[in-house]
Each structure stands twice: as structure tokens, then as C-alpha cells.
Amino acid sequence: MKSGRSLWRAVLALALLAVSPLRAEEVERGAATPPAVEKQEQHLPGVALSQGITEITGVAISPLLGVSAVGAWRYWHTNAEARGALPWFCQPWVWGSGMLLLAMCFLKDSLGTAVPGVLKKPFDMVELFENKASALVASAAFVPVIAGQMAEHFKAEHPAAAVPAASLIGGNLAFIDMAWLFVPVAIIAFLLVWICSHAINVLIILSPFSSVDAVLKIMRTSLLASVGLIYAIAPWLAAIFCLVLIAIAAWLAPTAMRLAIFGARFAGDILLPWRGKSRATPESPHAFTLGRVGGLPARTGGRLIALEDGSTAFRYRRCCVLDERTIPLPEGTRLVAKGLLSPSLLHRGGDAAEVEVLLFLPRYRGHEDAIAGHMKCHGVREHGLTRGFAAVKGWLKDVLRGGKGIAST
Fold first, then answer.
1. What is the Cα–Cα distance from 98 to 69, expressed in whole angstroms?
2. Domain ranges in the chain?
3. Closest residue by Cα to residue 283 from 315, 322, 259
4. 291-324: per-residue pLDDT in tens?
5. With left for phi above 0 and alpha for psi between -120 and 50, is residue 287 left, alpha or beta?
6. DSSP string, 91-104
7. How is domain 286-393 classified at the CATH fold level?
């Protein structure tokens, strides 16, 4: 037990280092100066930019932990008389509330390993929306503050570096504030890293095993700790590492975005079933692709529709907002399969193996027969686990009722 607590404290310390790395001056004197004095500090060239890049990347990996850790660190390493001038996220009611939520999540994950994963999924879905809310707050109110500080340090280190705006707006010679360049770039970088980190939360709610959930969270925490360890070795090396992470995140962003949309709609139907049921349309059900259907990537959202000629097709919007496109489904045997959380569409063509091609939203549980009728499918199939649960349920009823009995003659 003591070793487990020591490991958790070590991981938390590394995470704190990742999202709020120490400056060399703070290590020497053991306290940070107030914000008004921080602007006049002398940094080694590039250290302030490396710190800002590291903070933004660390917070993007885990927004609630990042914002809370940065706020708590700056609060406790600022003189008492200057704490009132600290940014909003440095106030005790902000980072204290964040730490309380983190403690609840840690308790949920600690107890979750001893219970079936299905029983923990509703809490994982709540954490999914918490992660979205934390990222929204961080991108709107935290990242601009850090980016503004980076711009101030950059101007202090490079006074001659300015963008002339006279050629853009005409008139007298003017210069664009560097913050106008740093802030949007920082927000874009934050969102790219966050959407990929958020995909881990979606994978957690899709995984039925608590052990897999734990491995996914350990991977994310290890990545966060790696950022801090590299910064402790060399700030410039941490900046390069974070820039590599941002580049990888930009490449993975489209896939992560599709997964995030799927996770939000899936979790929304589970947590708010009455809302989903009221919006169910069995004649054109909402569905997501599993694997590649007609060249579309996995987790592409759209609707299953019946065309006028009696065939079935998948209709979707490019990038969720552009023009609609229709992909006919291949010919073959189609079945609607019942699932524990949501139904799916099975397809078998010729002698090929039967595969799942579409996954419907949970709001369509109980509408399998209607979907099969509208789409002219070849039937409805019970899920294997569903059949097992039905058998157990029937056995329990027989046991509790003392058997079915024998009819009298």
C-alpha cells in the first residue's frame, strides 16, 4: 500500500512539473515573483518560450490537472501581498475545486478496477464531458494568458522583432502586437493536442474492460510526466519534444475529431436516454461507420436511408458542415443486431464472413424491428451476450418462483 501511494505521489509530482516547470531563478530563491515583477525578469534566450510551449502542451494533455496545477504552483510560490493580482486560475477557489474533482476521479478509477467495467461507464462518460468543459475554459481563458506572457518575453528578448502594419492598414507606420500572433497559434496548438488526448477518454468509454481503461490512463499520465522530465533535463529539448507532439497531433486530428464526435453523441444518449429516445428516427437512423464503408474512414457519422429504388445507402456530410453525399451499401445479406448499449448493422456478401458495418446510437435500442422493416433487412439478431443474459434471467425467475410447475389434468 505504501509503495502504491509513493508511486502515485511521484506521478503527481511529475505531472505538476510538466504543466508548471520551474524557472532557474525560482529554484534559487524558492519563490516566484508577482506578475508585475515577472515581466522584468531576465531569462536565458528561449527559456520563456520553452516554458510557455511546455505549459500549453501539458495542459492540453490534461486540462483540469494542468490548470489546477499551474494555478496552485503560482499561488504558493508568490508572495502573500501579491497573490491578489494573480490570474483567475491561480485563486484557491479555482485550483481547489479542480483538485477536488481530480480526487474524485482518482477515487473512481481506484475503485473501478475491482468492479466490472460496465458499472463504471456512466462515471467515465461524465468525465468525458468534464474534459470537454475543462478544455473549453482552458482554451478561452488560460491559453491566451500564457500566450500573452510568451509574447511579452519574446518582445523583451527581441525588441527589433515586430510586424509592420503600415502596408496592411495604410497611414502612419504602426506595428502589430505580438500577442495577436502568439494567441491564435497557441490556441490552435492547444486544441490539436487536446483533441488527441480527448480521444483516450472516448476509447475508455468504449472499452468494456477496467484493465484497459487503467492502461490508457497510465499512457496519458506517462506522456504528461515525460514532458516534465524532458523539461527538467533541458527546456529547449522539451520545447522540441512538444513541437513534435503538436505535429503528430495535427496529423491525427481528423481521426481524433471523428472519435470525439462519436463519443459525445454515444455518451449523451447513455446519460440522457429520454432526450435520445425523443429524437430517434427509425426510418432514417443515426449511425457511424465501423471500418471503411465505401472508402469512408471509421467513425464517420451520418444516417442510414432507404432510396427510392429500394436499395439502402449511407448519407453523411463532409467535415460535418459541407455538402451531403450518399454512399450505397453493397449488396448482400443485412441484419440488424441487438447490442448491450446500441444496435448495429451486419453485412455478409456471398461467401464472405459476416461483419459489422454500421453502429447505431443507443437511442435506437428497442427500434431494431422498425429499422429492419424500413431498410428491408433480412431480420433481427439477438446479441450473444443478450441471449446469455436472457437465459440467466429466465433461470433466476424459475428458481425464485419454484419452477414453472405442471398443469393439472
1. 9
2. 2-271, 286-393
3. 315
4. 777 788 888 999 999 888 878 899 998 877 788 8
5. beta
6. SHHHHHHHHHHHHH
7. PH-domain like (2.30.29)
